[in-house]
C-alpha cells in the first residue's frame, strides 16, 4: 500500500507494486447485538492510563518487543488472549468476556459498529492520526466504518496460495492449482467460511460474498471435488508449510511474508495471487463497548503507530500497516514474494467480503457446514 503522494513518487511506488486506495459502497448487515449498549458507554475514550491492557487478537500478530516497550513506558501489563476466527472472537464478546482492544476484519468491524458494540474513536486523541488518515484517504472514510469513526486500520492483506516450490515446482497462477495432483493429500484450506466459499466463487466467476442458494450449490459441488484431496482446514498456514504438513495451502499474504523470516532458504517457498482474483481485507483496531480500560487501549493504538514500532511490527508479522513512512520497510521485506504487496489494482477489484442479509449469511453457514463435513 502507499499513501497519497505527489505524482512522481506515486509512479515510483506503483512501479514497486504499491498503490493508492479506493472507496466502495456499503452493504447490508445481519448482526444483532444481544442487548443494546447504553449510548454514554459509546462515547470516545480519552487516551490515558486506566488499567492494564486486555488484548484480544490473532496469535503472533504483534511483535512481543513492542508489547514490552508499551508495558515499560506506561507501567501496565498486556494481558493477552487469542482467537483463530472472527466467529470465535465475536462468540467471546457475546459470552460477556471484556476486552480493551480487538482486531476485527472489515466486514466484522461493520457488524460490530452497526450493532452498537464499539466505542467511537476520537482521532484528535491519536498523535499520529494524520500519518494514517491523511496519508491513506481510503481509510479516512472506508465502506465498513464511515469516517473510521470506530476503528483505526491495522493491516491489509490478500488471500492466495502458498506452496513448496522445492516439491512442486512452478504453479499455474490459478485457484485451480489447489487441485494439483502432485500436492494431493497435502493441501490445506484456511479454516474460514468466507475465504473457502470465496475461493470457490472466484473459481466459478461468482461474487465472493454470494448468499444466493443457486450459487452456493455450485460452490459446494465444486468444493466437494476438492475435499478428498485436502489434508484439512487450518489458518496456521506458515507453520503447516514450514513443518512439511502442507505442500500447498490457501494463505493470507502477510502470513506468507512472515514465513520468509523463519525460512532458512526462502526460495523453497512460493506465494501466488491467483488470476481469477484474490479476496482483499483489512484488520483494524477497535475498542468494545464494555472495555474495562478503554483509555489504555487508546494509548496502545497511539503507541503502535510510532514509526519505530510500525517498522518492528511489520517485520515481525509480515503484514503491511497503512502508516506513512512504512512503505519501504514492507517493500524490502516482501522482495522475494512481491505478490504480498497490496496494490491499487487489488483494491480497485474490491474483493472485500461484505455483510449479507440474515438469510444470505445463514445460507453461507449451511454451505460451509457441508463443505467442511465433505
Ligand atoms: C496472524 C493472522 C492474521 C489474520 N498470524 C489475518 N486476518
From TrEMBL:
Q: Which SUPFAM superfamilies match?
A: Periplasmic binding protein-like II (SSF53850)
> What parts of the sequence cross the membrane?
12-34
Any one biological process term the GO annotation gives = polyamine transport
- Intracellular or extracellular location(s): Periplasm
Q: From the UniProt record, which GO molecular function terms apply?
A: polyamine binding
Q: Which Pfam families match?
A: SBP_bac_8 (PF13416)
Q: Which InterPro entries match?
A: SBP, Sperm_putr-bd, TAT_signal
Domain of life assignment: Bacteria
Q: Which GO terms describe its cellular component?
A: periplasmic space
What is the name attached to this protein's record?
ABC transporter substrate-binding protein
Organism (species):
Streptomyces mangrovisoli
Amino acid at each position: 500500500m502507499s499513501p497519497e503522494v505527489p505524482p512522481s513518487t506515486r509512479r515510483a511506488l506503483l512501479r514497486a507494486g504499491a498503490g493508492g486506495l479506493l472507496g466502495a459502497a456499503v452493504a447490508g448487515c445481519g448482526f444483532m447485538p444481544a442487548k443494546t449498549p447504553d449510548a454514554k458507554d459509546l462515547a470516545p475514550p480519552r487516551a490515558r492510563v486506566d488499567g492494564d491492557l486486555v488484548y484480544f487478537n490473532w496469535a503472533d500478530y504483534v511483535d512481543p518487543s513492542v508489547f514490552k516497550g508499551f508495558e515499560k513506558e506506561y507501567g501496565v501489563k498486556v494481558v493477552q488472549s487469542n482467537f483463530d476466527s472472527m466467529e470465535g472472537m465475536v462468540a467471546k464478546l457475546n459470552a460477556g468476556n471484556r476486552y480493551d482492544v480487538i482486531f476485527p476484519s472489515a466486514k466484522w468491524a461493520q457488524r460490530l459498529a452497526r450493532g452498537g458494540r464499539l466505542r467511537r474513536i476520537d482521532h484528535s486523541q491519536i498523535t499520529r492520526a494524520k500519518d494514517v488518515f491523511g496519508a491513506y484517504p481510503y481509510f479516512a472514510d472506508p465502506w465498513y466504518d464511515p469516517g473510521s469513526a470506530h476503528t483505526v486500520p491495522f493491516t491489509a492483506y490478500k488471500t492466495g496460495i502458498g506452496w513448496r516450490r522445492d516439491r512442486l515446482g512452478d504453479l499455474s497462477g490459478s485457484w485451480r492449482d489447489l487441485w494439483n495432483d502432485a500436492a494431493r493429500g497435502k493441501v490445506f484450506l484456511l479454516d474460514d467460511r468466507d475465504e473457502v466459499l470465496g475461493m470457490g466463487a472466484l473459481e466459478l466467476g461468482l461474487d465472493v460474498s454470494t448468499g444466493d442458494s443457486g450459487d452456493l450449490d455450485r460452490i459446494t459441488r465444486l468444493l466437494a471435488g476438492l475435499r478428498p484431496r485436502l489434508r484439512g482446514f487450518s489458518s496456521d498456514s506458515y507453520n503447516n508449510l514450514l513443518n512439511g504438513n502442507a505442500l500447498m495451502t490457501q494463505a493470507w499474504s502477510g502470513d506468507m511474508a512472515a514465513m520468509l523470516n523463519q525460512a532458512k532458504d526462502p526460495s523453497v517457498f512460493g506465494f501466488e495471487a491467483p488470476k481469477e482474483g484474490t479476496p482483499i481485507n483489512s484488520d483494524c483496531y477497535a475498542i468494545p463497548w464494555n472495555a474495562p480500560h478503554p483509555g489504555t487501549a487508546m494509548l496502545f493504538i497511539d503507541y503502535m503507530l510510532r514509526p519505530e514500532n510500525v517498522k518492528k511490527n511489520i517485520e515481525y508479522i509480515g503484514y503491511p500497516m497503512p502508516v506513512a513512512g512504512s512503505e519501504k520497510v514492507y517493500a524490502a521485506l516482501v522482495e522475494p514474494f512481491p505478490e504480498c504487496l497490496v496494490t491499487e489494482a487489488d483494491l480497485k477489484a474490491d474483493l472485500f467480503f461484505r455483510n449479507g442479509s440474515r438469510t444470505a449469511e445463514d445460507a453461507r453457514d449451511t454451505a460451509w457446514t457441508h463443505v467442511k463435513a465433505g
